[in-house]
Amino acid sequence: MSADLIPLDRRRPRTPWRGGALMGAGWATFAGAVGDNREHAHHALQLVVGETTDVAVWIRGRGEVQAPAVLLDADVVHRVHPGPAYLLYLDRESHAGRLLSPTCVAGARGLTSAERHAVLDAWPRPSRLELGPILAALGQGLPASPPVAAPSDDRVQRVLDSLVTRTTWEGTLTSLAAEAAISPSRFRHRVRELIGMPLLPYLRWLRLRQALTVAATGESLTRAAQDAGFADAAHLTRTMQRHFGVAPSDVIQALRQGG
């Protein structure tokens, strides 16, 4: 059963973000001190977890709420209260996102202390980049679906493997399907089988990860954005704001500090 969400007095301190971040296919994490953030919405679910104390989140239509952890549905206007926390972002179109979104009532779900501890025990680390344990920790019959095994000669899998290391992003569904020598519709279907999310959101995550990772090494944000297929730094910033509600500079700093 979800924890009750307790209204709090609304506050707006101005503090910087400090912590480490990790990014995977369709998900990203942040662990550390959440800094100032304006009221915003993004097309990703967000799990906000307190390490030892409750977290506070302002949610449009519900006011500020407090719980050991709060799961926010995609496109919900909110603001996370600054302070120590673990954040998990999940693409709404991913397998995990589609499983968890229906558990959010009126846009959010409060977690119990027991669920918080289970989630933190399962938190992704550089040596364990998987979401299955977190889905299991969130319980209520939400085990992660086992990945679809890919034959060693799977042409779509080979194309997907190559995307991870590409430095140019001119491929389209048609061109990528041509690389695999199958129809675009079959390519799209097979991609969803293999990675649990549609092709275009998956490509966006890869491009964001490339741009932010390269910028974290010291490359200019403009060059990193353009190399990853964004028109310019402003385009990258708009994409980050839409999907995560934070500026690239916050994530870049966290990536430099590691997870």
Q: Helix and strand layout, with pairings?
A:
Elements: E1 18-24, E2 27-34, E3 44-49, E4 55-59, E5 63-67, E6 69-72, E7 78-80, E8 83-91, H1 95-100, E9 108-111, H2 113-121, H3 132-138, H4 155-165, H5 173-180, H6 184-195, H7 199-216, H8 221-227, H9 233-244, H10 248-257
Antiparallel strand pairs: 1-2, 2-8, 3-6, 3-8, 4-5, 4-7, 6-9
CATH homologous superfamily annotation of the largest domain: Jelly Rolls
What is the C-level CATH assignment of the largest domain? Mainly Beta
Distance between the termini: 30 Å
Q: Spans with pLDDT under 50 lasting ≥5 residues?
A: none
Task: Supply the helix-strand structural class.
Answer: alpha+beta
CATH 2nd-level architecture of the largest domain: Sandwich
Overall radius of gyration: 19 Å
Main sheet: strand order: 1-2-8-3-6-9
CATH topology of the largest domain, by name, is: Jelly Rolls
How many domain units? Answer: 2
Q: Overall pLDDT, averaged?
A: 85
The arrangement of helices and strands along the chain is EEEEEEEEHEHHHHHHHHH
- Helix tally equals 10
Main sheet characteristics: 6 strands, antiparallel
Beta strand count: 9
Task: Describe the protein.
There is one protein chain. This protein has 259 residues and is of the alpha+beta class. It is 39% helix and 20% strand. The chain is built from ten helices and nine strands. The model has no long low-confidence stretch (mean pLDDT 85). It comes from Arenimonas malthae CC-JY-1. Residues 154-254 form the HTH araC/xylS-type domain. This is HTH araC/xylS-type domain-containing protein.
